[in-house]
Predict the 3D structure of the following.
Amino acid sequence: MKLLNRAGLALLPREPYADWVNGLPQGDSPHQVMTLEMHRAEGTLYLIDEVFNESDFDQAIARHWRQMFENELAAWDEFGDHWPELLSREQFLEWFELKPQLMAIDLSAEPLMRAPLMDEG
């Protein structure tokens, strides 16, 4: 068991995100209509730098909201053809609930794997 020098933001979809996903064109590979509960059953945990006070979470959200928003949208529309025209922090907070997680503990004996999902440039 190892304590990671990270905190986290657990991201859970809200109704506008579920509505957006369910409104996407089905194309060649139809997806099942998902209820909000189905979406919320599996949130995403984003690791951030360690935090020392509540304002550190606010700063992390201000710094990373766009990356998180784009990653969640890309999970359903990889090329962004049907993304909202303008992405804003306000819209992100309407579409997702964020639950701050103070500590990250690694229970695995396996080495931690890192694989960049987007250009980190």
Summary: The chain has one domain: 2-25+36-106. The helical segments are 15-22, 36-40, 54-74, 89-95. The radius of gyration is 16 Å.
